[in-house]
Task: structure prediction
Amino acid sequence: MPAPIVLWWDPTLNDGDGGPTSTWNAGTVDADSYSAVKELWVFNNKGGSEAVSDMTNVFVTTKDSNGLDGGPVADRSQAVVEVSMWNGASGTWKSWKEIYGSSATEDVLNAAGWVADGDTKANRISGMVNPTDPTDTNYSDPNTMKKYAKMKLRLHVFENATAGPMSWKTRVSYQYT
Amino acid sequence: MIWRAIYKDGTIINEYECGKEFNFLQLDKEQIDKFMIIETGNEGIVNFSVDNGKFNFSNLDLRKLEQLTGGEKLIIEYDKDKQNFKMTTESLELFKKIKLEEEAVMDKIEFDQTGKFYINGQPFHLSFELNGKDFEFLNQPPYTNIIHKKQGYTEFKGKRNSDIPYRRDDGIAGYYIGYEKEYNSDSQFKLSLVLYYDVIFKVVTLQCKIWANKMIDGKVVLHFGENQHQIPVTLIPHLPPVYLERIITRL
Result:
């Protein structure tokens, strides 16, 4: 089965129609404050005409620039990224949770709250061809909702943070066959 | 890395052959004699400079390059559906002719129908020690309930207090290879035995779940090459399996 085709989607682009993105510009964030909230969706095989592998055991965390658990964000020494995940089962946003390195991660849940056979959680994003919404543009379609996850991110910069630029990666990890 | 299956009749099936993927789910698992993940020399060896337009491949066979006349072309085209650039089939065939084909220097993790793993040729298996007796988790074929997955990631990279936009990266962080197996001795064991190969650190880690049908106090013994390592465990039926994670070696 082909590898997942992951698309980061910004629902605020194009006058609210949304669009693909590769940026999250947290901008200037002073010490002892939060950045603006950024909502991002993670799609698998959006509008695809050929099925790809599901993304399974999906979770989000942060890493340093080398992909390790170092500072200043992935070790929570000067700042930390917080995430609020859309819980499709309850139809509500989960409370904010800090994510950093290997020790504090958050499951990425599909928007449908869909738990596949053999899974215990909804942290799977389907790579199917959508029979009911082939272009995956009806975001309330039950099948489309299996193909994406919604999350909100914000950066919390601590009081002791040094001024100036700060590097980190926000990483979504997953398994596939 | 790719997976490779070798059937009992000698047929070799690679995950990719001339750019075409073989679906893992369509493998005839009953026919498998060996299953492996193997470094094919095609990953992590291309350095492209956007400044001068040059590709620097680090896995080409200089003897084969001598035979080229010059002007040969490698064509890369964009696949809009899959959002990636890919060599054309003809170019890929040319590339395979000039790349280094020395399998002996490629990293490889495999297991066969004895249940024994080989990590770059070094044998690895588990046993269970109980009351001074050692029960080896081996030699009860078939080992066809194969586990194989990839650990993928997608991420944003960037800076706070900077106008530099965040950059997106995608990749594979590691590969899983293993199997599930039930063993019958005085007790009944169920084993999920997986080796995880971390691409970044080149580390091989054991990730093992073990169940038993009755309460047992014993030791799981890891055998790697000439070395042994014992881990005391208590197995209790009707409870979740005991999970063991240990670094085995670095490739």
